[in-house]
Amino acid sequence: MGIDTSCDDTGVGVVRGHRVLSNVVASQAALHAPMGGVLPESASREHLRVIDEVAGEALARAGVGLQELDAVAATRGPGLAGALLVGLGYAKAIAWGTRRPFVPVHHLEGHLAACFAEPGGVVSDAANAPPEPPFLCLIASGGHTVLFDVPDYGTYLRVGGSRDDAAGEAFDKVARLLGLPYPGGPALAALADAGDPGALALPRPMARQQGHDFSFSGLKTAVATLLERDPNVRPADVAAAFQERVTRSLVDVSVRAAESNGRDTLVVAGGVAANRSLREALRSSGLRVHVPPLELATDNGAMIALAAVIGSTRDGFPDQAEALAVDAAPYLPLADAPSRPRDATRR
Ligand code: KG4
Ligand code: ZN
After folding, report:
1. Is 344 within the bounds of a domain?
2. Cβ–ligand 1 contact at 165 (below 6 Å)
């Protein structure tokens, strides 16, 4: 069983091997919508209120009893401290009570693990073959936009990333400028369907840079200026143009990074990987591309369980005294995360 409470979704999923048996996500979107963003304390309290019900539902849908679990995993970071603590505390308690190993998981490793889901179970559009390292990996979510070279399972070499806003954050901020409801990414993408991406002269992010970094805040400012200067501009055109600039930048920089690292496979994960226009643009990238099934792209518990399966198959379960003492880590770079002790002790 895997649990993610890193931000504003309470996610619990149950997997057997790489097959997702259940994946229940309770969204807090309605709670945070009036604020236009996530209020951390409300998020923690809401996780606490619903987590037991969400976990019960995930077990019921999987047809698995607590005593049948092999291990319990939860996100340890990065994310909102108070929110993380709820899932972490809940998972540790279940693991300790059922005498099963507890597995702390890095949230971004969870996003990547979503690409390793097998067809069958509740996931409808899982790919047939999981990505095989070496590959280049782009994680684009609300909190992160970062490129890793992955020469081997569990090894992450950072090769680039956003210098300012994460891609999802830019989607959310521009959606807000357009008066769309929180969370803005999916709403902006839907509006873009009715627009013309070539109708407006928006800048191309980092157009003159040949490196492996992204920058989205200039584009966001350009949208704000455009809306201020021309109140009659069609919102759908703004959405379409903005989305085209962001997805083009994500694809171009990723392809460049893959080429300069000698990789022919690109794995794209994180909430923004749910974007249809990005998925289409990736098809003509010339690389072998893996994306997560749509329902596993945004935050969920199944991806955390998958990461625990992949990690424990490779390294065994972590030392339990250490695992049960793991604290929530709001800031936790993936590339610098210490590798887990190779200790297969089971409790
Ligand atoms: O991975 P995720 O669920 O949470 C984080 O770890 O941050 O990503 C959420 C982000 C939000 O910024 C959301 O607006 C964006 O992913 N997102 C999208 C789409 N679906 C979610 N952005 C663009 N198009 C989408 N279809
Ligand atoms: Zn996430």
Report:
1. no
2. no
Ligand 1 atom closest to the CA of 276, numbered from 1: 26
Alpha carbon distances (Å) from 306 to 4, 132, 135, 180:
12, 15, 19, 33
CA of 79 to the centre of ligand 2 (A): 8
Per DSSP, helices labelled H in 99-151 are: 107-113
Which structural domain, as residue segments, surrounds residue 64? 2-124+298-339
pLDDT in tens, 232-282: 999 999 999 999 999 999 999 999 999 999 999 999 999 999 999 999 999
Residue keyed to tokens 């690409």: 115
Nearest to 299 by CA among 55, 113, 162: 113
- Atom nearest to 9 CA in ligand 1: 3
- Rounded to whole angstroms, how far apart are CA atoms 164 and 22? 35
CB-based contact 231:272 (threshold 8 Å): no
Does residue 44 contact residue 85 with C-beta atoms inside 8 Å?
A: yes
Q: Is the CB of 183 under 6 A from ligand 1?
A: yes
Domain co-membership, 60 together with 172: no
Predicted local confidence at residue 128, as pLDDT: 74
Dig out the tokens for 235 from the structure.
């919102």
Residues 63 and 140 placed together within one structural domain of the fold: no
Nearby residues of 131 by Cβ (< 8 Å), 6 or more positions away: 115, 116, 265, 267, 290
Split into its structural domains, the chain has a count of 2
Q: Does ligand 1 lie within 6 Å of residue 275's CB atom?
A: yes
